[in-house]
Amino acid sequence: MKPWELFNYIRDIRHDEYITSGDDVQWTVKVDDENKIFRLIFEDSCGKRDWLNNLNFPVKIYKRQESCLLAARGWGKAYKSCKDEVMKAMEIAIWLDPCYEIHICGWSYGGALSLLAAEDLFYRFHKKARVFTFGAPKPLFGRKTQYVRSCVEEVHQYSHVNDCVTIMPPFPGYKRLATDRIGKGFCLLKLFNPRKYHRIYGDESQYNEK
């Protein structure tokens, strides 16, 4: 799929097709037999708990291991609350067909959780996923972000130049794994229009890729 097609695919998944786990995290696994792909998809913010986690910026040790990975407290807490159930589903998928690629995808809040899930997948099963996110904030912190990059096969994190969500948290040190800029004509005032620019990822004309 082209990125705009993938975004529209994610947007078209009905809310009732997602599983709710832990701290009100919505996720699902979609099987693409034609292209031999398992897609682990996290839904965007859709409840009060999600917004509380979105705004819980303070850094906390996410995982005490050699990497001592740091993450924003809210997103780390949210993923930890659902990780065992999510990874159990991925374990079953890997067992059913270990030759299928694994793609981890998410929009907005779901994009932040996608990065943590990709690290968890590698940590547990030594499987490297391809990660695709849209309008994702920056959940990781500090130099250890490079460790997470080593856990994935490929990563594309699409960020529109006027999407205010992609600059969150607005403090030094917070990071994504990558930033694939799309769109043109940055304008400070447009950052105050997330209703448009946070939902624009399904528009093919915003991408340089053809």
Explain the overall architecture:
Strands 1-2-3-6-7-9-11 form a seven-stranded mixed beta sheet, with helices on both faces. The chain has a four-stranded antiparallel beta sheet with strand order 4-5-8-10. It has one domain (3-198): Alpha/Beta hydrolase fold, catalytic domain (Rossmann fold, 3-Layer(aba) Sandwich), CATH 3.40.50. It has 210 residues and is α/β, with parallel strands linked by helices. The chain is 32% helix and 26% strand. A hairpin with a 3-residue loop joins strand 1 and strand 2 (25-32). It has helices spanning 3-12, 48-54, 73-96, 109-125, 145-149, 194-197; strands spanning 19-21, 25-32, 37-42, 59-63, 69-72, 101-107, 129-134, 140-141, 152-160, 174-175, 180-182. The chain has six helices and eleven strands.
Short description:
The protein has helices spanning 3-12, 48-54, 73-96, 109-125, 145-149, 194-197; strands at residues 19-21, 25-32, 37-42, 59-63, 69-72, 101-107, 129-134, 140-141, 152-160, 174-175, 180-182. It is an alpha/beta fold.
Structural class: alpha/beta
Query: For the residues shown, what is the average pLDDT?
Result: 89
The figure for the number of domains is 1
Shape: globular
Proportion of residues in helical segments: 25-40%
The CATH architecture is: 3-Layer(aba) Sandwich
The residue ranges in which pLDDT falls below 50 over 5 or more consecutive positions are none
CATH topology value:
Rossmann fold
Query: In angstroms, what is the radius of gyration?
Result: 16 Å
Order of helices and strands: HEEEHEEHEHEEHEEEH
Which band does the percent of strand residues land in?
25-35%
- Oligomeric nature of the chains: single chain
Within CATH, the superfamily carries the name Alpha/Beta hydrolase fold, catalytic domain
Number of helices: 6
What is the terminal separation in angstroms? 12 Å
